[in-house]
């Protein structure tokens, strides 16, 4: 975020988002987390009109609002209890909120990895939380819309909706297949996910002296350098049957487990009961080189699919295969970073093909942020449950962009939402840290349907030069151009006065004053007019350069 917490850079330019209110719609929040400590925070601005359903000892100048919206959900899912308070023992809402605007928390880590001071993208911004999702149920559309309306009335400046398949700003997690993204409306900033340059490095050393890289959050103390017998599951290969593993006698061995058949945390418990000393988990092929490590109950290294095939080949050709696991801790400067996350949903935008989606990508793989506790983590006696964990998804990239938007709003209080969106999109990075175009997980160059405009660059976004501005009224002829009925258009723009699309000049998608331009060519010899004619609206830029 610039030259440091106390120096220059984006945080200095934007005062860390001070006075900006970020509304988070999610599944609940652990209000007592240190990321929501209000030390040094000023009171919310006078425009704040919301409420906090926690008591006064929980709400503070950081977490200024917290409400539950469940009126529709309780009819949709019979038996859903009134949550009373927007609390959830799950991780999601706490993680996204602290990513967007968490306070500085020294000593944050997960299993002694990624040790450092945690902070949200806008550490001095206020958080207003709106619970719209419920564990093992989901998120109801009507409750989401009610919460959005309420947030706007409350005076929220930026909304962060990590809700995937519902109205919001996360692109979704069903990539890498095309045309899988959610939230394609042009008035939303639709965010895809990318990797960072941080790895939780570990190596599998084979008896042949070959060393193969993976990642791990399961580094034991005093592990040793002894080579141990290496085995594979002779059943389904996925280490799902304890009886099969017991029968083949894996006691004291390192066992390799294929993807599938359940989560690796459960597999670790199974192989431990069967007597294994360690475990190698092979990631799905579709993940390419990307690993999403988890803490396990025994020494574990998670490896990409291609590495797994090399280990299996060694197993098949060696009469007495052996291996050792080498744990290297947290490393940075991983080449080819950022890279597209394999799960990040892709365009094209099925509902409006002429609007490029996603709009932008941001960090969404192995993001460390606040949580009530680490799910399924087995602790030593008297050990304290960690308050930080890594999570992956477009739900993690979305609050990164919400926080950056809050910084821009502080630095440029007169900018419209469209101007902020334009500044973010027109100043992105399209190359990785090796100066090559951002890659997809299969090694090919990522397409615009994966990256959108590119990877967010907060520093450049502060001074974009020109922006493509839009008002809410500008979307009406666009909606009419998509052949929505008057009833549909009026339901979207309510409570604005109703319109009659027949009396309006239709606006084609390519002519919307959007920060990206998509041209649909149906035939090889097609000629597309990019400049509207007659009385149609023309694209226009607004000069916001500080010196201009």
Pick out its properties.
single chain, 548 residues, alpha/beta, seven-stranded mixed β-sheet, 20% helix
What does this structure look like?
- By secondary structure, the protein is α/β, with parallel strands linked by helices.
- Helix content is 20%, strand content 18%.
- It contains 13 helices and 21 strands.
- The chain has helices spanning 10-14, 73-76, 92-101, 141-154, 242-247, 264-273, 305-317, 394-411, 417-425, 448-451, 458-461, 475-481, 486-493; strands at residues 21-26, 63-68, 105-110, 113-118, 126-131, 133-134, 138-139, 158-161, 191-194, 199-206, 211-215, 228-232, 254-257, 278-282, 300-303, 322-331, 360-363, 367-370, 388-391, 466-468, 541-543.
- The chain has a seven-stranded mixed β-sheet with strand order 11-10-16-12-13-14-15, sandwiched between helices. The chain has a four-stranded parallel β-sheet with strand order 2-5-1-8, sandwiched between helices. The protein has a two-stranded antiparallel sheet with strand order 3-4.
- Helix 3 (92-101) packs parallel to helix 8 (394-411).
- The longest helix is centred in the C-terminal third of the chain and has 18 residues, at 394-411.
- It starts with 9 loop residues before the first helix and ends in a 5-residue tail after the last strand.
């Amino acid at each position: 975020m610039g030259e440091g917490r106390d120096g220059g850079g984006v945080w200095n330019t934007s005062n860390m988002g001070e006075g900006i209110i970020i509304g988070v719609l999610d599944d609940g929040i652990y209000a007592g987390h240190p990321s929501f400590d209000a030390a040094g925070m000023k009171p919310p601005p006078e425009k704040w009109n919301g409420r906090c359903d926690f008591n006064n000892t929980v709400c503070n100048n950081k977490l200024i609002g917290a409400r539950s919206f469940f009126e529709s959900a309780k009819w949709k899912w019979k038996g859903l209890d009134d949550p009373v308070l927007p609390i959830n023992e799950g991780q999601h809402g706490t993680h996204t909120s602290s990513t967007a605007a968490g306070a500085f928390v020294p000593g944050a880590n997960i299993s002694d990895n990624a040790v450092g001071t945690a902070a949200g993208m806008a550490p001095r911004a206020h958080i207003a939380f709106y619970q719209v999702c419920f564990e093992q149920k989901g998120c109801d559309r009507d409750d989401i819309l009610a919460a959005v309306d309420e947030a706007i009335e409350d005076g929220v400046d930026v909304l962060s909706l990590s809700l995937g398949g519902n109205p919001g700003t996360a692109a979704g997690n069903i990539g890498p297949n095309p045309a899988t993204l959610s939230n394609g409306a042009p008035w939303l900033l639709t965010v895809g996910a990318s990797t960072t340059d941080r790895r939780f490095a570990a190596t599998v050393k084979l008896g042949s002296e070959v060393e193969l890289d993976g990642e791990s959050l399961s580094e034991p103390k005093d592990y040793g350098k002894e080579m141990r017998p290496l085995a594979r599951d002779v059943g389904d290969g996925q280490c799902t049957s304890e009886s099969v593993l017991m029968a083949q006698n894996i006691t004291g061995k390192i066992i390799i487990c294929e993807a599938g058949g359940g989560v690796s945390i459960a597999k670790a418990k199974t192989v431990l009961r069967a007597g294994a000393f360690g475990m190698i988990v092979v990631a799905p092929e579709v993940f390419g080189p990307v690993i999403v490590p988890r803490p396990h109950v025994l020494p574990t290294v998670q490896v990409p699919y291609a590495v797994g095939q090399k280990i299996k080949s060694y197993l098949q050709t060696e009469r007495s295969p052996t291996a050792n696991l080498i744990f290297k801790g947290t490393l940075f400067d991983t080449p080819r970073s950022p890279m597209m996350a394999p799960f990040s949903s892709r365009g094209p935008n099925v509902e409006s093909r002429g609007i490029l989606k996603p709009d932008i990508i941001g960090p969404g793989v192995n993001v460390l942020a606040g949580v009530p506790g680490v799910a399924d983590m087995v602790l030593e006696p008297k050990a304290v449950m960690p308050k930080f964990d890594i999570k992956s998804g477009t739900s993690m990239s979305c609050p990164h962009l919400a926080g950056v938007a809050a910084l821009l709003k502080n630095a440029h209080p007169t900018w419209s939402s469209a101007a902020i969106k334009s500044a973010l999109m027109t100043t992105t990075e399209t190359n990785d840290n090796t100066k090559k175009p951002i890659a997809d997980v299969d090694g090919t160059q990522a397409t615009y349907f994966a990256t959108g405009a590119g990877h967010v660059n907060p520093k450049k976004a502060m001074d974009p030069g020109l922006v493509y501005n839009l008002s809410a009224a500008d979307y009406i002829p666009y909606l009419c151009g998509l052949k929505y009925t008057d009833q549909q258009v009026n339901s979207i723009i309510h409570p604005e006065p109703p319109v009659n699309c027949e009396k309006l000049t239709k606006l084609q998608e390519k002519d919307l004053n959007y920060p990206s331009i998509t041209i649909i060519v149906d035939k090889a010899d097609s000629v597309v007019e990019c400049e509207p004619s007659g009385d149609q609206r023309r694209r226009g830029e607004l000069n916001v350069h500080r010196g201009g």
